[in-house]
Amino acid sequence: MPRQRRTGKLEPVQKKWLSANEAMAYLGCSRNLLLKLRNEGEVSFSVYGGKTIWYELNSIEKFLERNKVI
User: Fold this and answer.
1) Does the pLDDT at position 68 exceed 70?
2) DSSP element (H, E) containing 54
3) Spatial distance between the Cα atoms of 53 and 60, rounded to a whole number of angstroms
4) What mean pLDDT do residues 34-47 have?
5) Ramachandran region of residue 21, left (φ > 0), alpha (ψ -120 to 50) or beta?
6) Are 14 and 51 in contact (CB under 8 A)?
7) Cα 35 off chain centre by
8) Does the reported pTM lie above 0.70?
9) What is the rounded distance in angstroms from the CA atom of residue 55 to the CA atom of residue 24?
10) Which has more pLDDT, 27 or 52?
11) Radius of gyration, alpha carbons of the chain
12) pLDDT above 80: residue 13
C-alpha cells in the first residue's frame, strides 16, 4: 500500500538578507556603488566565512526612503 502524500500550504518567506547580486539588482546599481554605500555606512551588511557578504534588505529600503526625491 503506497504512502499517502501530505501537502500543506507554505507561506512565502520575506527575505531579510540579500546577496551582493540581489542587492545590486534591487537598487539597480553597480558593484562599485554598492561597495561605496557599504563603506560609507549607508547600508547594513554581514560577513560570513570572511568572504560572503549579505546586505540587510531593511537597511536598503531605509536608504532609498532617506534619499527619495519628492
Assistant:
1) yes
2) strand 52-56
3) 14
4) 96
5) alpha
6) no
7) 14
8) yes
9) 10
10) 27
11) 18
12) no
Alpha helices in the chain (DSSP H): 20-27, 31-39, 57-66
CA torsion sign, 23 to 15 to 67 to 40? negative
How far apart, in Å, are the Cα atoms of 34 and each of 41, 46, 53?
11, 14, 11
What dihedral angle (degrees, nearest 10) is formed by the CA atoms of 22, 24, 25, 29?
180
Say yes or no to pLDDT of 66 above 90. Answer: yes
Residue 2: predicted pLDDT: 73
- DSSP bridge pairs for 19: 54
